Amino acid sequence: MSAPDRIDELRRLIADADHAYYQLDAPSVPDAEYDRWMRELRELEATHPEFVTTDSPTQRVAGKPSSAFAEVRHAVPMLSLNNAFADDEVADFVRRIVEATGESEPAFSVEPKIDGLAITLRYEHGVLVQGATRGDGTTGEDVIANLRTIRAIPLALRVPAGLPVPEVLEVRGEVYMPKAAFERFNERAHAAGEKPLANPRNGAAGSLRQLDSRITAKRPLAFFAYGIGEVQGFGLPATHSVLLKSLAGFGLPLAPEVDVASGLDGVLAYYRRIGVARETLPYDIDGVVYKLDRRDLQEQMGFVARAPRWAIAHKFPAQEEVTSLEGIDVQVGRTGAITPVARLKAVRVAGVVVTNATLHNADQIARLDVRVGDTVVVRRAGDVIPEVARIVPERRPLAADGSPLHPAFVMPTTCPECGSAVERAEGESVMRCTGGLYCPAQRKQALIHFASRRAMDIEGLGERFVEDLVDFGYVQTVADLYRLTLDDLLAMKRRADARDGVTPETVKQGKIATRWAENLLGGIDQSRNTALERLLFALGIRDVGEATAKQLARWFGGLDALIAASVDELLAVPDVGPVVSARIHGFFAEAHNREVIAALRERGVQWLEGPPQRTAEGPLAGKTVVLTGGLSAFSRDEAGAHLEALGAKVAGSVSKKTSLVVAGEAAGSKLDKARELGIEVWDEAGLLDFLRAQGRIA
Ligand code: 9MJ
Fold first, then answer.
1. 110 SS3 class
2. Which residues pair with 530 in a beta bridge?
3. What is the rounded CA–CA span in Å between residue 613 and residue 555?
4. What is the Å distance from ligand 1's center to 80 Cα?
5. Helix (H) or strand (E) holding 317
6. What are phi and psi of 307, to 5 degrees?
């Protein structure tokens, strides 16, 4: 093959691979193969520089940094959108359209509102020749060198066979940084001691503003198209939704959530659907956009100022809010982990009042450079614990000499609950109290965990009773729960009442109020009969969650076999790696823990044991499945039981070993991770189809 032919072929192969990867979300070749094509193309172009063209993939990263961006006047102004925050503002918008057009149920193109940076791409005769930011809508900055580095942006249109190449096609859309890429970028920045990005949007904006496109090339940016500017030599479709499909036909990426809805009910249903999915999307969105679908009607509606009257952005409540940090406390958890917690001036974030937010650990405090008195950005996403995302450095209170008014926070060197030394294990960012069960905070958390619904399920044993039981010395270990008497509980209550200065109910009512104590003893008694897996989970062995406890119970059948197991024998259990096997072995090696188990047995706690089950059969044998998010047809436990019955191992967290992830509504980081690792993902409908096909459900 001649050099120019091979050059053409390589360019086509690379463009096809980029298209499969970025537009179809279905990688078609291994990275190594792709890299070999790029290398060969670079070599051929180096020996035949006369064949180098601007749309060659080797030209995505140009050589030299520029000193400034040139101005670009947009041939067609880049619009902004009016915002709606409440349903009735959307209702007004739809009503105006109904009245102006006479359409009773107008159709809308409905789109996620990507939180990135608006740009325009100009293709002349199918080749990308210019790219600019929105700027003020009339004039933007020429950032073509940076845009070329984004592999989701085709350097040349893929014109479908039989269609003429448009003379001019300006495509408008959003450059964004995927959430996973943002996380990875920040992890690396942190490891390298560099400044992290505040959020994916700033990541996208900052990256496009680099004067050296070699830096931009290292930033993982992506692109979605959502509109057009100047067009020549291309017959535009009658509706915006079909127009978007033609853009996709030219190889431009569209957000997969783009859809068509009709009337007010239709767009509001879309808003709710995307609101639920928001957390699981691999990119940040800050709302949805409704655009009147028929372009002739758009023209009829026209514009006010710079915004069209035929489109509106319906915003989601902000996930970030600004407030002030009033103090930093430290909390001691069940495993002794010492967590700094920010006490905040109350602020509403995404519909919930937040007064505490986690600061995670000492590293995070250092990274954020956060001090008492700072103005902070609090972030609350979905059902995750609110966290302090960053500070607003300009608003730090200063002393007269310009130095910070408040000192930097230092983590305590002794446990605030028990005074034991605080340790930081090699390679871990978490600090832990070394007091173990001597530490009342750890003891309390261990009891709360032991009694919790998914562990021993002791009804009536709430956090407050646990506090008092430990503080007054009635309970040291979990086994002590099983020798509590009615007299103990009543005596404890009297002491607690005296401490709190409340009139004892016994005096108030002239009789002994024993109902609560009887209920608690009943709850404790009921928990005496349990399952081995529940007991194992309840013991609170570090890193032994429900899924691992279940595996251990199945594998060993009985507790004595598990206690006798060596580290190597433990390693054979599915889902158990070196760290967990060492933890389990270490737990049972400790005399104190074996004594607690003996005391539990002695005090009548029994658990079901059975023969060890070490093989799985069925269509899912050998597969590890993770369930995440909410299911509507049944609970996650039920779904897990069905999958296990078909031979699957159900695990709690996603790793390289995971074969399949079932993602329900509002699935979060596990789904992100599955996508990152390229693991097969089913939605609930997919699961139901499978279970139906297996005859497990009707
Ligand atoms: C975003 N940001 O995703 C528009 N946008 O349309 C979508 N922005 C837009 N449309 C006209 N999906 C102006 C801006």
1. strand
2. 607
3. 5
4. 8
5. none
6. -105, 140
Sorted by sequence, the CB contacts under 8 Å of residue 634 that are 6+ apart come out as none
Q: What is residue 104's predicted lDDT score, i.e. its pLDDT? A: 94
Query: What fold is seen in the domain 320-395?
Result: OB fold (Dihydrolipoamide Acetyltransferase, E2P) (2.40.50)
- Active-site position among 113, 444, 493, 550: 113
Closest CA to 114 of 244, 351, 289, 293: 289
Write phi, then psi, for 433 (nearest 5 degrees): -70, 135
Q: Where are the domains of the chain?
A: 3-60, 83-315, 320-395, 412-614, 624-693
pTM: 0.61
CATH top-level class of 412-614: mainly alpha
pLDDT in tens, 245-280: 999 999 999 999 999 999 999 999 999 999 989 988
Predicted local confidence at residue 29, as pLDDT: 80
Count Cβ atoms below 10 Å from residue 213 Cβ, excluding itself.
24
Amino acid at 569: E
User: What integer best gives the mean pLDDT of the chain?
Assistant: 89
Looking at domain 624-693, does it have CATH number 1.20.1250.20? no
Nearest Cα residue to atom 11 of ligand 1: 79
CATH superfamily of 83-315: DNA ligase/mRNA capping enzyme (3.30.470.30)
**Residue 289's beta-bridge partner residues?**
111, 313
Q: Which of 545, 585, 698, 586 is nearest to 633 (CA)?
A: 698
- Nearest-angstrom CA–CA distance, 533 and 636: 17
Question: Which of 109, 114, 117, 270 to mutate to test ligand 1, by most ligand atoms within 8 A of the CB atom?
Answer: 114
Please confirm, yes or no, whether 113 is among the known catalytic residues: yes
State pLDDT tens for residues 109-119: 999 999 999 99
Q: Which residues line ligand 1 (CB under 6 A)?
A: 79, 81, 111, 113-114, 174, 226-227, 289, 311
User: Could you give the CA distance from residue 315 to residue 115 in angstroms, rounded to a whole number?
Assistant: 11
